[in-house]
Amino acid sequence: MKNEDTRKRLYTLATAFIGIFVQTMIVFVVWQGYYNSTHVIRKIFVFRGHYFVMAIYWIVLYLFNKKNGSLKIGYLKIGDLIFSQLVSNVCANLIFYLELCLLAYGFPSPAKLLQAMLAQNLFQIIWVIIVTKGYQRIFPPHQVLLLFGKDSVKEFLPKLEARKDKFTICESIKINTEKIKSDPKLCRAIKEKMSHYNTVMFWDLPTVMRNEFLKHAYGKGIRIYVMPKISDIILNGSEQMHFFDSPLLLTRSNPMTLEERVLKRCMDILLSILLLLVTSPIMLLTAIAIKINDGGRIFYKQTRCTMRQKEFRIYKFRSMVENAERDGVARLATKKDDRITAVGRFIRATRIDELPQLINILRGDMSFVGPRPERPEIMKKYMKEIPEFVYRTKVKAGLTGYAQIFGKYNTTPYDKLKLDMYYVEHYSIRLDIWLLIQTIKIIFVPESTEGVKEGKEK
Questions:
Q1: Strands, E, within 358-433: which ranges?
Q2: Average pLDDT in the 151-176 region?
Q3: CB 435, CB 335: distance < 8 Å
Q4: Across the beta sheet with 223-226, what order do the strands follow?
Q5: How far is it, in rounded angstroms, from Cα 322 to Cα 294?
Q6: Residue 38 needs a FRET pair 20 to 30 A away by CA distance; which of 21, 196, 315, 360 works?
Q7: From CA 174, how far away is CA 210, in angstroms rounded?
Q8: Are 367 and 271 in contact (CB under 8 A)?
Q9: Which element (helix H / strand E) includes 346?
């Protein structure tokens, strides 16, 4: 397996180097043919100067690609790779343009750079498709042994089916702790079976058994995929301490420092004001369309929970018929829900219905990034089944967030909680900015706005 991992890494590095090199050369042509002239910059670069300028561009493009996951050939889907590389490309070219402004003591025309960026994007799309298909042909899916502890694995199997390019479940074993404890031979037999696979997955295993099998697989050099528990995610975000000659892990109950809270609030205020100004024409047209559609109210107000379960009134454009919950029972939208209006389907799919929440952000009820604000009734219901669900209210609710981006509308509450807890435990302003960039992608991903299945309250 080590040799295969090395080959995969070499393939990824080689394809990444070639891709970034070609993109850099496209910009170099524009730099050499247009921007590196006296009518644009004060002093023309020659010889080593060209290498210096392009080296900076290559490094910046590489760093953005690495941060956005654009180099994860074979890991991300083709669509995700293309989107990540396009975002990286825009960011790198924006920095390059700022560099040009410094060299020109002004604002040179960005037209040529935009043409180069278009050429880069076309190359990226073609290149990603070619190298991903090549990766899938050279490196077949992992042959996986799945060890699971509960029947909830049935919800996990369809997810694996969606990534047949990565995993093939060859065998599944349900782990019964009591049987294994009473029959040591059964434990040895499972370990022996693990040795015949290069990859194992642990899904919702009892903690004692998971530790036993995890150590065995690790010692044998077997690739391990683990479905984390809430405690795993909390520890994953802890800080390493070295007071003694034994390592300690520190986990704080408050995930943000004072400085981070102040900076996050300032960012929320500035961005909400800016976006309210930019999106005001869209909001006006949406209001008119809703009024014309059925003559009802434009806005929909609903009680939601934010930090420390504090309740507030959230604002959204109305996407359902008036009095959609006339019986007073709180329920989520389902697939093909007949309560959703014609205009509502469009604004829900494009997330336009969320725009009035900018007012909530400006008021301080919400933040741009954070766990989805749930209704008090639904919060209470989830907390009865999953007491840890309250942990997600350690930070303000958000317009977008980890669960909104990497989950779906119909992702189970427990999986949403784990995604939200990852954000809570790994909070940083840099993570907020990255998640805001990733939010652009979910507008074009139908699954993220998909309703829950009929008869289910997920």
A1: 367-369, 398-400
A2: 83
A3: no
A4: 167-174, 142-148, 199-203, 223-226
A5: 9
A6: 21
A7: 12
A8: no
A9: helix 342-349
What does the mean pLDDT of the chain come to? 87
Q: Nearest CA to 440 among 62, 83, 67?
A: 83
Three-class DSSP category at 14: helix
Q: pTM here?
A: 0.78
- For residue 165, what are the contacts with CB-CB under 8 A and spacing of at least 6? 74, 136, 141
State the amino acid at position 452 in one-letter form: V
Structure tokens at 352: 């336009």
pLDDT at 455 over 60: no
CA distances from 261 to 43, 265, 397 (A): 44, 6, 13
- Report the amino acid identity of residue 154: K
Q: 90 is written with which tokens?
A: 């825009």
pLDDT at 454: 43
Residues 226, 202: contact at Cβ < 8 Å? yes
pLDDT band for position 448 (50/70/90)? very low
DSSP 73-127: TTTS-HHHHHHHHHHHHHHHHHHHHHHHHHHHTS----HHHHHHHHHHHHHHHHH
- Let me know: does 299 contact 317? Beta carbons within 8 Å: yes
